[in-house]
Amino acid sequence: MSATPSDAVTVVVPARAEHLHVLRTVAASVAARHRLSLDATEDLRIAVDEACAQLLRAGGTTITARMRGVADGIEVLCSSDARVGGWPPEGSDRGLATQILRGLADTVAWETTEGGDPAIRIGKRAVGSTGT
Amino acid sequence: MSKSSASEEESALFARLPGDAAAREELLVRHRPLALHLARRFAGRGESIEDLEQVASLALLNSIDRFDPSRDVRFSTFGTVTIVGELKRHLRDRGWAIRVPRSLQELAVTVNSILPELSQELARSPTVSEIAERIGASEDDVLEALDAARAYSTDSLDAPIGKSEVMTGETLGGHDERFERLEAWASIAPALDRLPERERTILYLRFFEERSQSQIAEELGISQMHVSRLLAKVLAGLREEIGA
């Protein structure tokens, strides 16, 4: 275990749609702690759902959401343990999911984690930070 | 009596009922762990564990008296059904089947009632800590109240909403970004066409007009929670339909 306390919250659920509500709910709770407005919190809730639904399509057995406070709000890194050849899927940067995510979150990035897991990183600003 | 299997022993005990108090006591002792185990499964719903254990023990006693050993059912099966039924009935009679404690319901009502004025004062949607400060509750309580409001809101997702004056004008920034957005949404135009007008309106306002959920709520005359749920529902529905 790390000796440095971190305020990151990590939740792992089975890679099935019916478990995503756990991630949504925890994300909303963490968001409220980091001074996101109710509007922003509700948007984040839906964005987490959207991102994880995209990751479900990659297959895999678990979906992980790592939430942490950052300087201007909250960041959620959603990832899947799926082993996929090409991530992100072709055209995803122009696809509907990206449009929905951009509409809901302030930052959206399709990534691959250090461990090679497909991931989507979303950020949402808190009240009082620039851009709110 | 020769040493026999547990179930034969048990049949023998039941055969001595109803007259034999010792046999009844023996059956009670044997199955008490089952009753206590079942009682614990209903803990955390507002009723104390002691009360639950008492209800379960009483139900066990009743089920021993009512058990018919001539029928091809094991007592543990019959007893479990009876005890669980009694525990459920007890919780329901005490009003705890609905798992939102009353104080939380009241708090949820309070939170909802101060949201409009607080939003107006701040000229934006408030944070949980701002709500907590306003109504003199802890942040934990406000969070729980918001969750309760979400879970138990009686708004129907299909309820009609107020008239909205949605303009088709565009308020978006760069041309390229707008084009890309239109292109992405156009790819699912048939699915969008099939949506009820209200759902389409909410999508349009949120993603093209870039209105906040509370602005949309105000425009449509519904709660923000309702907007959030409709938005989540319509996006999930679209995903399912287009396999995206």
Oligomerization state: heterodimer
Share of residues in strands of chain B = under 5%
The termini of chain B sit apart by: 70 Å
β-strand number of chain B: 0
Helix count from the secondary structure assignment of chain A:
3
How is the biggest beta sheet of chain B arranged? none
Tell me the total number of β-strands of chain A: 5
- The succession of helices and strands of chain B, N to C, reads HHHHHHHHHHHH
Helical content band of chain A: 25-40%
The CATH topology of chain A comes to Heat Shock Protein 90
**Low-confidence parts of chain A lasting 5 or more residues at pLDDT below 50?**
none
The class by helix and strand makeup of chain B works out as mainly alpha
Query: Order of helices and strands of chain A, N to C?
Result: EHHEEHEE
Q: Please state the average pLDDT score of chain A.
A: 89
Number of helices of chain B: 12
How would you portray this structure in words?
The complex is a heterodimer of chains A (132) and B (244). Chain A has 132 residues and is an alpha+beta fold. In chain A, 32% of the residues lie in helices and 28% in strands. Chain A has helices spanning 20-33, 38-56, 96-104, and strands at 9-14, 62-70, 73-80, 107-112, 118-125. Chain A has a five-stranded antiparallel beta sheet, with helices on one face. In chain A, helix 1 packs antiparallel against helix 2 and helix 2 (38-56) packs antiparallel against helix 3 (96-104). The longest helix of chain A has 19 residues, at 38-56. Chain A starts with 8 loop residues before the first strand and ends in a 7-residue tail after the last strand. The mean pLDDT of chain A is 89. Chain B is mainly alpha-helical. In chain B, 68% of the residues lie in helices and 0% in strands. Chain B contains twelve helices and no strands. Chain B has helices at 6-15, 21-41, 49-66, 75-93, 102-122, 128-135, 139-152, 175-186, 189-193, 197-208, 213-220, 224-242. In chain B, helix 11 (213-220) packs across helix 12. The longest helix of chain B is centred in the first third of the chain and has 21 residues, at 21-41. Residues 153-174 of chain B have low confidence and may be disordered. Chains A and B meet through helix 1, helix 2 and helix 3 of A and helix 6, helix 7, helix 8 and helix 12 of B.
